[in-house]
Structure formats: C-alpha cells, structure tokens
User: Fold this.
Amino acid sequence: MLAKRIIPCLDVRDGRVVKGVRFRNHEDVGDIVSLAARYAGEGADELVFYDISASPESRSVEPEWVKRVARAIDIPFCVAGGIRSVDDARARLFAGADKISVNSPALADPDMINRLADEFGRQCIVVGIDSREVGGEWRVHSNTGDPGKTRTETRATLDWIEEAIERGAGEIVLNCMDQDGVREGYDIKQLTAARAVCRVPLIASGGAGAMAHFSEVFRQADVDGALAASVFHKQVIGIGELKAWLAQQSIEVRP
Amino acid sequence: MTVAIIHTGCANIFSVQTALDRLGVPHILAERPAEASGADRLILPGVGSARPAMENLRAAGWDEALVAEPRPLLGICLGMQLLFEASEEGGVECLGLLPGNVMAMTAFDGGRLPHMGWNRIHFEIGQDPMLTGIEDGEHAYFVHSYAVPVTQHTVASSTHGARFSAMVRRGNVMGCQFHPERSGKTGARILNNFLEFGA
Assistant:
C-alpha cells in the first residue's frame, strides 16, 4: 500500500529559504542545502522547492542550487518557479530534480503542460495551483509570490485541475491560499472537491498547524501527500514524531 | 571498482551519479559499449519512455553488447523494464535479457496513476544477494505507470492495485522498479548489494 507522503516545502527567495504568512512578509528561515539535508534525515518523504521570486520577476530557478540539493539528499524532490519552457525544465531535471512543477506559466500557456509531458513523461510533471474562494467558487490565482502582481484568474479551480490532468499533469499540488501560513488546518472542503475530479496524485498545501490536521486531510480528503512549511521550519512539529503519530492512527506512512 | 552508467540520452542520470558518489564508488558515463570497457559493472538508469530509450540503446549498439554481458548489470525503473522482452508502452521490443513483458498498470478504485511515492517491498523468495540487510516490508520510492507482473525472476514485489515486480534478478542481470538512488537508506543498501554482488 502506497504510504501517505509528508512533504516539507521550502520557499526559496534569492538563494535562501523564507516563509511568509498568507504569501506576504517573508522572513529568512535558513540555508537551502542544510535545511534539505535536515528534513531528509528526519524522515521527510519528499521535498518541494518553490522559487517564489521567480515568476513575478520573469526569471527561472537556478540549476546550480538544484545540483547542490541533489548531491545532498537521497529522497525525491521537486523544483518549482518560473519554468516556462521545455529547456527550462530539462535544465532542472538534468541538474537532479525528480520532478518539476509549473504554475503561473502553465496558466498563461496551458499547452506547455502537453509539451513537458511529451518530452519527459507525465510522472515528472507537477502542476501547482494556488486557489481561493472568490464570489462563491474556487478560483485560480497566479503570480502569488509577489502580492503586488498576484492575479485572480477567470479559471475555476476544479476545471483547471481536470484540464491540467488531461494535458499531461502527473500530480497536482493544490495550495489553498486562505489557509496558507495560518496553521488552522487544511481546506478539507476544497481538497475533497479537488479529490473527486483528480485521478492523479493530489497533494494538499496550506494550513498545517497541528498533527491532527495531517490525519484529517489524509482521512477526509484522501490526498496522497500533505505539504507544509512553517510547522516544520519552526519545529512546531517534528517529522519523526508526526509519522509515528500517524502510524498510531492507522495511517500508512513510511517509518 | 568502477561503475559505468549507460547514458541513453533521455534519462536524468545525475541522481544515480550522486548516489554512487555518496557510496564512494567511481563511475563513468558510457554512451557506447566501448566506453564501458574498463568498468566492472553497469547501471542502466531510466526516466522517460520505452521507445526513445530503446532507439538510443540500439543506435549505440547496447542491444547486442548486453546480450552476452558477463558483468553485473542493474536496470533502474524504465531501465529495469527495458531488460524484458517487450513493453506495452509504445508497443516496443526491448532487450530480452529476462522473460516477460511490461504492461500498463490499470487505474483502480482509490489507486492513482502514475504510481508515485513510497510503497512497501515484499520478498518473493527467501534469500537473495539483492536483499542483504533489507527487511520484508521496507519502503522504496516508485514513479511509474507501467510494470512487470510477478515472474519466476521476481525477487521482491510491491502492490498498487495488482502485485508487480519491484526487484528482479536472473544471474548477474538485476533490476529495481523503484529508484534506489532516491529511496533513502533502503535504496543505498540495495545499491550497495549490487556493488558487492559476486565480489
């Protein structure tokens, strides 16, 4: 049986790991490689690196730090941020990333998902979606790394999930923006709705604040993985103790 | 000892290189069989799809070279699938070093494809050099949508909907459907078992 994945997310800005609250007011939380190695050592199942300054500033993630991460850890990791071409993706994958995640550029050019999946196979193509409720329905947002440039898209989140999968997404990361950084629990309602239309792995993001939030999202929304940042960065929850506790709740995890 | 990593041109091989670095084992990249002549064992990595990978292997002469290969050979993920006779992925004939065919995994209720993440590996045989230091039920990291059913050469299996081959071996031809280079301590141990095989 496939284990539920615990995925620390490292938001990267200017080569450092940072964390904001509701996507604003970023503070420095440490060095990329040392945090990556620490999480891998503590039992994280996978890591995600989001270069949050990338899309708004029209540049891509630096393959050089991707290589440093690949050398340091022996678990899979995904790189996101400003990847807007097959060549951008190839550079990150050949630098050792296991998967690449596209968000804003895929909204601007949805056919890019097809091109990436055709070139590298859908198993390494993740589509990240930032979503919050606007006027009674969940809507996709873009360029969320910079509050001044964030846009509400016309697309409904559930429609975009279906389209992304149809085009070749191998995994969906749904970041529920209203919950991001506030540690009040995952958006179970939105994730359950997403699960119903998502036949590829679905990763929950935004809202983790306590161990119970993880068991809730696995049980109630049946997601494949749960992503979190601040609770791990600030050592509110230890990955080892979280996994031991989830195992006690009869949730399948890798010890 | 030196390991030659067979470079098919379409695989992400950096993670295999760094895993060997962590184990302190010298390695080279070999695009053609002659370039691997000084190596003691071979790894066939694999990310991507079967048809372009097989086309590149044939163009470089690996299909003929590997048939009579006396050195230990480890196929990883797609690289393991290519060891078999044929793959449903693109309907392509493979290397034929092991009997059996690669099949599409079928989506089932509650099971999603690709099969992506950490799954348990269970021993199909009592003992094998590939399993030294590994316990039944340890987790390994998988990413794939095609798989080889359990055959007489299956060393360990895993289950996602149906049971499939997670590790295979016939003589010095070995394969892992999962990525040992990304499977933490379990994966490092299995890579080490390959490096110590027959030594």
